[in-house]
Amino acid sequence: MELWDLYDAHRRPLNRTHVRGEPLSPGEFHLVAEVCTVNRKGELLLTLRSGEKQKYPNLWECTGGSVLAGEESLQGAVRELFEETGIRAAPEELRYLCSTAEPFDAPFCHMDFYLLMKDAPLTDLVMQPGETVSARWAGRDEVADMIRSGQIARPVAERLVRQGALMEAALREMGLPEA
């Protein structure tokens, strides 16, 4: 049984937990962390959602998921990255980009968006059964084409578009040249 800490609309803790899969009540929010992993070539790591997933099966996404009860957002981001890809990252390797209230998959979630610059050979990645089935690196133009053609899960695609300029600025600060 997966438990989440609950928050209000202003991200103040409600001091109670929620069982995943149960409906959230109005005014209850949970926390989600998403990690965009980019290699030194400027390519974005995308994972293919399992066909077993109820929402957005067989579509590409960035790594992410719900932060568990008792975890901080950054801990959840590091854990989700490892669970879904086998990539180990120290918390200090992830760069916080922004937080948003998301109206998509979970209408009641606060989402924290992180960036990781890491070269990880695809052959070293370990997919999470029932969650991810494949992975690929995609350049900026490829990602844009995948968004246009509907190959990336809609909520992820919309976040990538919304956070694109912020992500590009952070990558430049981290030493990645512009495309």
From TrEMBL:
GO terms for molecular function: hydrolase activity. Its cofactor is Mg(2+). It comes from the Bacteria. Signal peptide: none annotated. Keywords: Hydrolase. The keyword Hydrolase applies. Gene3D superfamilies: Nucleoside Triphosphate Pyrophosphohydrolase. Residues 28-160 form the Nudix hydrolase domain. This is NUDIX domain-containing protein. It comes from Lawsonibacter faecis.
